[in-house]
Amino acid sequence: MPSPSVLRGSFGTKRFVLKSLNVLEALRATDGWRHDEAILNGLFQSPRPKSRLRWLVEGPIPRSPRRFTYSITPIGESRPIGAHAVKLSGYRSAFGTVALHDRAWWGKDVVVEAKAMLMNQFFRHAGIERFYGVVDAHNVASVFSYRKLGFTHCGTWHRHKQNPVTGEVIDYLFFEMFREQWQAGPFWEAEDGH
User: Does residue 139 surpass a pLDDT of 90?
Assistant: First the structure.
């Protein structure tokens, strides 16, 4: 079990502060996402709005000791531009997902910077051996972020889901990164920042 005191703090990158949120803070920070079609499509492959109860169950909310949610706030600002959720799942594994509600930051490597910081923290302090992610094959920005971070495409579920609103059939891509691969790559930072 990871140490809450280490993983439930604040972390800085060159441009952002990532702050761990409790359940109420996460609900407040992401409440508007329940009706944001782009975010809902990215997270759930459907633009259908979510009730607050469904959001509590299905959204990026830290409902257990194995789930973490971090706000992403530009340094010097007070309003978050998005959030990154991490869920410990499977054998020594973590699943991460990121959403940015501030469109002005789309395409500016926020996801890469935030995910790299949190992967370093979790590899160092959570006893995990692997990070993984699942993404809609049409979500080009997410695929690009996984590729830029050095994740390996390890499989595809073809025609896995149908969007209930558009009827579009969706493939899912699976990506993973093992600790030793991460430590050999350009984004690894040891505890002292090197």
Answer: no
CA distance 69 to 53: 17
Residues 6+ apart with CB under 8 A from 108: none
User: Of the candidates 13, 3, 18, which has an alpha carbon nearest to the alpha carbon of residue 70?
Assistant: 18
- Report which residue type is found at 36: D
Side-chain-side CA neighbours of 79 within 13 Å: the count stands at 5
Instruction: Kindly report the backbone phi and psi dihedral angles of residue 174, in degrees, each rounded to the nearest multiple of 5, phi listed first.
Output: -110, 135
C-alpha 19/C-alpha 17 separation (Å) is 6
**Tens-place pLDDT, residues 67-126:** 999 999 999 999 999 999 999 998 999 999 999 999 999 999 999 999 999 999 999 999
* Alpha-carbon gap, residue 120 to 188, rounded angstroms: 6
Q: Which amino acid makes up residue 40?
A: L
Q: Half-sphere exposure of 45 toward its Cβ, with a 13 Å CA cutoff?
A: 18
